[in-house]
Design brief:
Maf protein, alpha/beta, 15 helices, six-stranded mixed beta sheet, elongated, Molybdenum Cofactor Biosythetic Enzyme, Chain A, Alpha-Beta Plaits, five-stranded mixed beta sheet, 3 domains
Protein backbone atom coordinates (compact mmCIF):
# COMPACT_ATOMS: atom_id res chain seq x y z
CA UNK A 1 0.00 0.00 0.00
CA UNK A 2 2.32 2.73 -1.26
CA UNK A 3 -0.31 5.47 -1.22
CA UNK A 4 -3.20 5.29 1.21
CA UNK A 5 -6.45 6.77 -0.06
CA UNK A 6 -8.76 6.96 2.95
CA UNK A 7 -12.50 7.50 2.92
CA UNK A 8 -14.97 7.52 5.83
CA UNK A 9 -18.49 6.17 5.93
CA UNK A 10 -20.60 7.08 8.93
CA UNK A 11 -23.97 5.49 9.47
CA UNK A 12 -26.87 6.26 11.80
CA UNK A 13 -30.19 8.08 11.75
CA UNK A 14 -29.07 9.99 14.83
CA UNK A 15 -26.27 11.58 12.78
CA UNK A 16 -28.58 12.49 9.92
CA UNK A 17 -31.28 14.10 12.05
CA UNK A 18 -28.86 15.97 14.31
CA UNK A 19 -29.55 14.11 17.56
CA UNK A 20 -25.84 13.24 17.74
CA UNK A 21 -23.00 15.51 16.60
CA UNK A 22 -20.26 13.70 14.68
CA UNK A 23 -16.96 14.04 16.52
CA UNK A 24 -15.59 10.68 15.41
CA UNK A 25 -14.55 11.75 11.92
CA UNK A 26 -12.57 14.69 13.30
CA UNK A 27 -10.82 12.38 15.73
CA UNK A 28 -9.98 9.88 12.99
CA UNK A 29 -8.59 12.64 10.78
CA UNK A 30 -6.41 13.92 13.58
CA UNK A 31 -5.04 10.47 14.42
CA UNK A 32 -4.15 9.42 10.87
CA UNK A 33 -2.63 12.77 9.90
CA UNK A 34 0.79 11.97 11.47
CA UNK A 35 0.93 8.93 9.18
CA UNK A 36 0.66 11.18 6.16
CA UNK A 37 -2.93 10.10 5.53
CA UNK A 38 -5.68 12.57 4.68
CA UNK A 39 -9.38 11.83 4.43
CA UNK A 40 -10.32 12.10 0.76
CA UNK A 41 -14.06 11.71 1.22
CA UNK A 42 -16.61 11.45 4.03
CA UNK A 43 -20.17 10.19 3.65
CA UNK A 44 -22.92 10.05 6.27
CA UNK A 45 -25.88 7.74 5.69
CA UNK A 46 -29.14 6.90 7.44
CA UNK A 47 -29.85 3.35 8.57
CA UNK A 48 -30.95 2.05 5.18
CA UNK A 49 -29.63 -1.33 4.06
CA UNK A 50 -29.86 -0.78 0.30
CA UNK A 51 -28.22 2.63 0.44
CA UNK A 52 -25.50 1.31 2.74
CA UNK A 53 -24.70 -1.64 0.45
CA UNK A 54 -24.49 0.59 -2.62
CA UNK A 55 -22.22 3.11 -0.89
CA UNK A 56 -19.86 0.41 0.37
CA UNK A 57 -19.53 -0.93 -3.18
CA UNK A 58 -18.88 2.54 -4.60
CA UNK A 59 -16.39 3.64 -1.95
CA UNK A 60 -14.49 0.35 -1.97
CA UNK A 61 -13.80 0.93 -5.67
CA UNK A 62 -12.66 4.52 -5.10
CA UNK A 63 -10.18 4.01 -2.26
CA UNK A 64 -7.90 1.40 -0.72
CA UNK A 65 -8.81 2.20 2.89
CA UNK A 66 -12.37 2.64 4.15
CA UNK A 67 -13.36 3.16 7.76
CA UNK A 68 -17.04 2.56 8.52
CA UNK A 69 -18.21 4.00 11.83
CA UNK A 70 -21.46 2.88 13.42
CA UNK A 71 -24.08 0.21 12.86
CA UNK A 72 -22.50 -2.65 14.82
CA UNK A 73 -24.89 -2.67 17.76
CA UNK A 74 -27.59 -5.18 18.76
CA UNK A 75 -30.69 -3.45 17.39
CA UNK A 76 -32.51 -3.96 14.10
CA UNK A 77 -31.26 -0.66 12.68
CA UNK A 78 -27.60 -1.70 13.12
CA UNK A 79 -26.99 -2.87 9.57
CA UNK A 80 -23.23 -2.67 8.92
CA UNK A 81 -22.45 -6.40 9.24
CA UNK A 82 -25.34 -7.36 6.96
CA UNK A 83 -24.47 -4.69 4.39
CA UNK A 84 -20.84 -5.84 4.34
CA UNK A 85 -21.81 -9.47 3.81
CA UNK A 86 -23.97 -8.58 0.82
CA UNK A 87 -21.42 -6.15 -0.65
CA UNK A 88 -18.68 -8.80 -0.30
CA UNK A 89 -20.95 -11.63 -1.44
CA UNK A 90 -20.19 -13.54 1.75
CA UNK A 91 -22.70 -15.31 4.02
CA UNK A 92 -23.38 -14.14 7.55
CA UNK A 93 -22.15 -16.68 10.09
CA UNK A 94 -21.71 -16.82 13.84
CA UNK A 95 -18.13 -15.78 14.49
CA UNK A 96 -16.57 -17.84 17.32
CA UNK A 97 -14.18 -15.06 18.35
CA UNK A 98 -16.96 -12.47 18.46
CA UNK A 99 -19.19 -14.86 20.42
CA UNK A 100 -16.44 -15.52 22.95
CA UNK A 101 -15.98 -11.76 23.35
CA UNK A 102 -19.71 -11.29 23.93
CA UNK A 103 -19.86 -14.01 26.57
CA UNK A 104 -16.86 -12.57 28.37
CA UNK A 105 -18.34 -9.07 28.22
CA UNK A 106 -21.66 -10.31 29.65
CA UNK A 107 -20.02 -12.43 32.35
CA UNK A 108 -18.02 -9.50 33.73
CA UNK A 109 -21.25 -7.55 34.09
CA UNK A 110 -23.36 -10.47 35.36
CA UNK A 111 -25.54 -9.97 32.32
CA UNK A 112 -27.54 -12.62 30.44
CA UNK A 113 -27.15 -12.40 26.68
CA UNK A 114 -30.37 -12.24 24.70
CA UNK A 115 -31.08 -12.73 21.00
CA UNK A 116 -30.43 -9.07 20.22
CA UNK A 117 -27.00 -9.18 21.86
CA UNK A 118 -26.06 -12.37 20.03
CA UNK A 119 -26.73 -10.58 16.73
CA UNK A 120 -23.38 -8.82 17.29
CA UNK A 121 -21.57 -12.14 16.83
CA UNK A 122 -23.17 -12.75 13.41
CA UNK A 123 -20.67 -11.36 10.95
CA UNK A 124 -19.50 -11.78 7.34
CA UNK A 125 -17.84 -15.17 6.91
CA UNK A 126 -14.05 -15.27 7.39
CA UNK A 127 -13.77 -11.62 8.37
CA UNK A 128 -11.11 -10.55 10.85
CA UNK A 129 -12.06 -9.24 14.28
CA UNK A 130 -11.00 -5.91 15.78
CA UNK A 131 -10.89 -6.21 19.56
CA UNK A 132 -13.13 -4.03 21.69
CA UNK A 133 -12.04 -4.11 25.33
CA UNK A 134 -14.83 -1.85 26.61
CA UNK A 135 -17.97 -2.48 24.56
CA UNK A 136 -20.01 -5.46 23.48
CA UNK A 137 -19.57 -5.07 19.70
CA UNK A 138 -16.32 -6.20 18.10
CA UNK A 139 -15.02 -4.37 15.06
CA UNK A 140 -14.71 -5.90 11.61
CA UNK A 141 -11.77 -5.96 9.20
CA UNK A 142 -12.57 -7.18 5.71
CA UNK A 143 -11.31 -6.63 2.16
CA UNK A 144 -13.67 -5.79 -0.70
CA UNK A 145 -12.45 -4.80 -4.18
CA UNK A 146 -8.85 -4.65 -2.88
CA UNK A 147 -9.97 -2.10 -0.30
CA UNK A 148 -9.19 -2.63 3.37
CA UNK A 149 -12.40 -1.94 5.30
CA UNK A 150 -12.39 -1.35 9.05
CA UNK A 151 -15.70 -1.15 10.87
CA UNK A 152 -15.93 0.34 14.34
CA UNK A 153 -18.80 1.10 16.73
CA UNK A 154 -20.17 4.62 16.82
CA UNK A 155 -19.44 5.03 20.55
CA UNK A 156 -16.52 7.52 20.60
CA UNK A 157 -14.64 5.86 23.46
CA UNK A 158 -14.77 2.47 21.72
CA UNK A 159 -13.71 3.95 18.38
CA UNK A 160 -10.70 5.64 19.99
CA UNK A 161 -9.44 2.43 21.54
CA UNK A 162 -9.87 0.42 18.33
CA UNK A 163 -8.28 3.11 16.21
CA UNK A 164 -5.21 3.57 18.40
CA UNK A 165 -4.68 -0.04 19.46
CA UNK A 166 -5.65 -1.94 16.32
CA UNK A 167 -6.13 0.14 13.19
CA UNK A 168 -3.25 2.64 13.46
CA UNK A 169 -0.65 -0.10 14.21
CA UNK A 170 -1.94 -2.06 11.19
CA UNK A 171 -1.65 0.99 8.93
CA UNK A 172 1.88 1.71 10.11
CA UNK A 173 2.93 -1.73 8.89
CA UNK A 174 1.45 -1.02 5.46
CA UNK A 175 3.31 2.23 4.91
CA UNK A 176 6.49 1.99 2.83
CA UNK A 177 9.67 2.05 4.96
CA UNK A 178 11.08 5.06 3.10
CA UNK A 179 8.13 7.20 4.15
CA UNK A 180 9.41 10.14 6.21
CA UNK A 181 6.63 12.40 7.41
CA UNK A 182 7.28 15.47 9.53
CA UNK A 183 4.90 18.31 10.33
CA UNK A 184 5.94 21.65 11.78
CA UNK A 185 3.05 23.69 13.20
CA UNK A 186 3.56 27.40 13.76
CA UNK A 187 0.99 29.39 15.71
CA UNK A 188 0.49 32.96 14.51
CA UNK A 189 -1.51 35.93 15.72
CA UNK A 190 -2.36 39.24 14.10
CA UNK A 191 -2.56 37.92 10.53
CA UNK A 192 -5.78 36.63 8.98
CA UNK A 193 -5.80 33.29 7.15
CA UNK A 194 -6.08 34.81 3.65
CA UNK A 195 -3.59 37.54 4.54
CA UNK A 196 -1.12 34.94 5.77
CA UNK A 197 -1.47 33.00 2.53
CA UNK A 198 -0.86 36.16 0.47
CA UNK A 199 2.27 37.00 2.48
CA UNK A 200 3.59 33.47 1.98
CA UNK A 201 2.94 33.66 -1.76
CA UNK A 202 4.50 37.11 -2.10
CA UNK A 203 7.61 36.71 0.04
CA UNK A 204 8.18 32.96 -0.08
CA UNK A 205 7.16 32.12 -3.62
CA UNK A 206 10.32 30.05 -4.11
CA UNK A 207 9.35 27.64 -1.31
CA UNK A 208 10.00 24.13 -2.71
CA UNK A 209 6.93 22.18 -3.72
CA UNK A 210 8.23 19.29 -1.62
CA UNK A 211 7.32 21.36 1.46
CA UNK A 212 3.55 21.24 1.71
CA UNK A 213 1.86 24.31 3.24
CA UNK A 214 -1.41 24.23 5.18
CA UNK A 215 -3.46 26.80 7.07
CA UNK A 216 -5.95 26.41 9.93
CA UNK A 217 -7.85 29.34 11.41
CA UNK A 218 -8.80 28.95 15.05
CA UNK A 219 -9.76 32.46 16.16
CA UNK A 220 -7.97 34.49 17.27
CA UNK A 221 -4.95 32.57 15.95
CA UNK A 222 -4.02 31.00 12.61
CA UNK A 223 -1.91 27.88 12.39
CA UNK A 224 0.66 27.55 9.62
CA UNK A 225 1.68 23.96 8.84
CA UNK A 226 4.76 22.84 6.92
CA UNK A 227 4.64 19.18 5.97
CA UNK A 228 7.46 17.14 4.46
CA UNK A 229 7.37 13.56 3.26
CA UNK A 230 11.05 12.81 2.63
CA UNK A 231 14.26 13.28 4.57
CA UNK A 232 15.61 15.57 1.85
CA UNK A 233 12.63 17.91 2.04
CA UNK A 234 12.83 17.85 5.84
CA UNK A 235 16.42 19.12 5.64
CA UNK A 236 15.28 21.89 3.28
CA UNK A 237 12.52 22.87 5.67
CA UNK A 238 15.03 23.89 8.34
CA UNK A 239 16.39 26.59 6.03
CA UNK A 240 12.96 27.79 4.97
CA UNK A 241 11.73 27.98 8.54
CA UNK A 242 14.36 30.66 9.17
CA UNK A 243 13.07 32.62 6.17
CA UNK A 244 9.48 32.27 7.38
CA UNK A 245 10.45 33.62 10.78
CA UNK A 246 12.16 36.57 9.10
CA UNK A 247 9.03 37.38 7.08
CA UNK A 248 6.41 36.81 9.78
CA UNK A 249 8.68 37.91 12.65
CA UNK A 250 6.85 38.25 15.97
CA UNK A 251 3.48 37.38 14.47
CA UNK A 252 4.69 33.84 15.20
CA UNK A 253 3.82 32.88 18.75
CA UNK A 254 5.90 29.74 18.54
CA UNK A 255 5.86 26.14 17.40
CA UNK A 256 2.94 23.98 18.48
CA UNK A 257 4.27 20.78 20.02
CA UNK A 258 1.20 19.13 21.51
CA UNK A 259 -1.80 21.27 22.45
CA UNK A 260 -2.68 24.60 20.89
CA UNK A 261 -0.35 27.47 21.74
CA UNK A 262 -2.48 30.36 23.01
CA UNK A 263 -1.83 34.04 23.67
CA UNK A 264 -2.50 33.71 27.43
CA UNK A 265 -0.09 30.77 27.55
CA UNK A 266 2.63 32.80 25.80
CA UNK A 267 2.22 35.68 28.26
CA UNK A 268 2.18 33.29 31.21
CA UNK A 269 5.35 31.51 30.09
CA UNK A 270 7.21 34.79 29.54
CA UNK A 271 6.17 36.08 32.96
CA UNK A 272 7.18 32.81 34.61
CA UNK A 273 10.54 32.74 32.83
CA UNK A 274 11.30 36.33 33.83
CA UNK A 275 9.85 35.91 37.35
CA UNK A 276 7.42 38.78 36.84
CA UNK A 277 3.82 39.32 37.90
CA UNK A 278 1.00 40.98 35.99
CA UNK A 279 -2.14 42.90 36.90
CA UNK A 280 -5.12 43.94 34.79
CA UNK A 281 -7.26 47.08 34.88
CA UNK A 282 -10.42 46.57 32.83
CA UNK A 283 -13.50 48.50 31.96
CA UNK A 284 -15.16 47.43 28.68
CA UNK A 285 -13.81 43.85 28.83
CA UNK A 286 -15.35 43.26 32.25
CA UNK A 287 -12.68 40.93 33.62
CA UNK A 288 -12.18 38.85 30.48
CA UNK A 289 -8.48 39.70 30.38
CA UNK A 290 -7.95 38.47 33.92
CA UNK A 291 -10.02 35.34 33.31
CA UNK A 292 -7.89 34.36 30.30
CA UNK A 293 -4.77 34.46 32.45
CA UNK A 294 -6.25 32.80 35.53
CA UNK A 295 -7.72 29.99 33.42
CA UNK A 296 -4.18 28.60 33.16
CA UNK A 297 -2.92 26.19 35.78
CA UNK A 298 -0.25 27.85 37.89
CA UNK A 299 -1.57 31.37 37.20
CA UNK A 300 -1.13 32.28 40.86
CA UNK A 301 2.62 32.41 40.25
CA UNK A 302 2.21 35.38 37.90
CA UNK A 303 -1.13 36.93 38.85
CA UNK A 304 -2.34 38.25 42.21
CA UNK A 305 -4.95 40.88 41.42
CA UNK A 306 -7.02 42.38 38.67
CA UNK A 307 -9.41 45.34 38.71
CA UNK A 308 -12.75 45.63 36.93
CA UNK A 309 -13.65 49.31 37.13
CA UNK A 310 -16.68 49.72 34.94
CA UNK A 311 -17.86 53.09 36.21
CA UNK A 312 -15.93 56.33 36.53
CA UNK A 313 -16.61 56.23 40.26
CA UNK A 314 -14.79 52.89 40.57
CA UNK A 315 -11.95 54.05 38.32
CA UNK A 316 -11.40 56.86 40.75
CA UNK A 317 -12.01 54.82 43.91
CA UNK A 318 -10.15 51.60 43.05
CA UNK A 319 -7.42 52.81 40.71
CA UNK A 320 -6.99 56.42 41.84
CA UNK A 321 -7.76 57.80 38.40
CA UNK A 322 -8.02 61.58 39.05
CA UNK A 323 -11.53 62.93 38.74
CA UNK A 324 -10.10 65.84 36.78
CA UNK A 325 -8.75 63.38 34.18
CA UNK A 326 -12.13 61.68 33.86
CA UNK A 327 -13.94 65.01 33.59
CA UNK A 328 -11.57 66.50 31.03
CA UNK A 329 -10.80 63.49 28.79
CA UNK A 330 -13.56 60.98 29.53
CA UNK A 331 -13.38 57.31 30.47
CA UNK A 332 -12.31 56.22 26.98
CA UNK A 333 -9.11 58.16 26.47
CA UNK A 334 -5.36 57.82 26.43
CA UNK A 335 -5.07 59.83 29.62
CA UNK A 336 -7.57 57.70 31.54
CA UNK A 337 -6.20 54.35 30.45
CA UNK A 338 -2.69 55.47 31.41
CA UNK A 339 -3.97 56.51 34.82
CA UNK A 340 -5.73 53.13 35.17
CA UNK A 341 -2.49 51.33 34.36
CA UNK A 342 -0.48 53.38 36.86
CA UNK A 343 -3.13 52.86 39.52
CA UNK A 344 -3.21 49.09 39.00
CA UNK A 345 0.59 48.87 39.22
CA UNK A 346 0.61 50.96 42.37
CA UNK A 347 -2.20 49.13 44.20
CA UNK A 348 -1.14 45.60 43.20
CA UNK A 349 2.65 45.96 43.30
CA UNK A 350 2.73 43.90 40.09
CA UNK A 351 5.55 44.27 37.57
CA UNK A 352 3.48 44.35 34.37
CA UNK A 353 0.06 45.80 33.57
CA UNK A 354 -2.61 45.75 30.87
CA UNK A 355 -5.31 48.42 31.09
CA UNK A 356 -8.27 48.82 28.77
CA UNK A 357 -11.21 51.21 28.41
CA UNK A 358 -13.56 51.36 25.46
CA UNK A 359 -17.06 51.49 24.00
CA UNK A 360 -18.30 47.94 23.43
CA UNK A 361 -21.76 49.10 22.37
CA UNK A 362 -24.42 49.01 21.27
CA UNK A 363 -24.80 52.40 22.99
CA UNK A 364 -22.40 55.00 24.35
CA UNK A 365 -20.83 56.19 21.09
CA UNK A 366 -20.28 59.82 20.12
CA UNK A 367 -19.08 61.52 16.94
CA UNK A 368 -15.57 61.84 18.40
CA UNK A 369 -15.61 58.33 19.87
CA UNK A 370 -17.53 55.95 17.58
CA UNK A 371 -18.74 52.50 18.53
CA UNK A 372 -15.77 50.14 19.01
CA UNK A 373 -13.37 52.84 20.19
CA UNK A 374 -10.90 51.47 22.70
CA UNK A 375 -7.66 52.56 24.38
CA UNK A 376 -5.11 50.12 25.76
CA UNK A 377 -2.11 50.75 27.97
CA UNK A 378 0.55 48.19 28.79
CA UNK A 379 4.06 47.97 30.15
CA UNK A 380 5.76 48.42 33.49
CA UNK A 381 6.37 51.25 35.98
CA UNK A 382 9.14 52.78 33.85
CA UNK A 383 7.68 52.28 30.36
CA UNK A 384 3.99 52.44 29.51
CA UNK A 385 2.73 52.24 25.93
CA UNK A 386 -0.72 53.17 24.65
CA UNK A 387 -2.66 52.28 21.54
CA UNK A 388 -6.01 53.36 20.12
CA UNK A 389 -8.21 51.02 18.06
CA UNK A 390 -11.68 51.07 16.58
CA UNK A 391 -12.96 47.48 16.62
CA UNK A 392 -16.18 47.08 14.64
CA UNK A 393 -18.49 44.15 15.34
CA UNK A 394 -20.72 42.68 18.01
CA UNK A 395 -20.14 43.36 21.68
CA UNK A 396 -18.66 39.88 22.16
CA UNK A 397 -16.41 40.19 19.10
CA UNK A 398 -15.20 43.56 20.35
CA UNK A 399 -14.32 42.17 23.79
CA UNK A 400 -12.57 39.08 22.46
CA UNK A 401 -10.56 41.11 19.93
CA UNK A 402 -9.51 43.71 22.48
CA UNK A 403 -8.43 41.01 24.94
CA UNK A 404 -6.42 39.17 22.27
CA UNK A 405 -4.66 42.34 21.13
CA UNK A 406 -3.96 43.35 24.70
CA UNK A 407 -2.36 40.00 25.48
CA UNK A 408 -0.36 40.12 22.26
CA UNK A 409 0.95 43.61 22.98
CA UNK A 410 2.06 42.50 26.44
CA UNK A 411 3.70 39.42 24.91
CA UNK A 412 5.60 41.62 22.48
CA UNK A 413 6.63 43.91 25.35
CA UNK A 414 7.95 40.94 27.33
CA UNK A 415 9.99 39.55 24.42
CA UNK A 416 11.24 43.05 23.58
CA UNK A 417 9.85 42.89 20.06
CA UNK A 418 11.06 45.56 17.66
CA UNK A 419 8.35 44.78 15.08
CA UNK A 420 4.96 46.45 14.90
CA UNK A 421 1.98 44.09 14.44
CA UNK A 422 -0.10 44.36 11.29
CA UNK A 423 -3.24 45.23 13.25
CA UNK A 424 -1.63 48.57 14.18
CA UNK A 425 -2.01 50.75 11.11
Amino acid sequence: MSIINLQLLLTGNELINGDVIDTNSAYIAKQVKPLGIDIAKRVTLADNLTVLINEIKIMSQQCNLLIINGGLGPTSDDLTAEALSIAANLPLTENPEALLHLKSWASKRMYTLDKANLKQAVLPDKCNIIANRTGSAVGIHININDCDIFCTPGVPSELKIMLNEEIIPYLKKQLPPQEFLHTTRLQTYGIGESQLQMIMQEHLAALPTTIEIGYRANAPTVELKLITHTEASYQLKTTWLKKIHQVLNDHILGEIKTNDLTLPMCVYEQLLEKKLTITTAESCTGGLLASKITALAGASQVFEAGYVTYSNKMKNHMLSVPQTTLDKYGAVSKETVLAMAKGALSHSSADIVIAVSGIAGPTGATVEKPLGTVWLAWGDSTTLHTQHFVVKGTRLYFQKTVVARGLDLVRRFLIKSSHSPLYIK
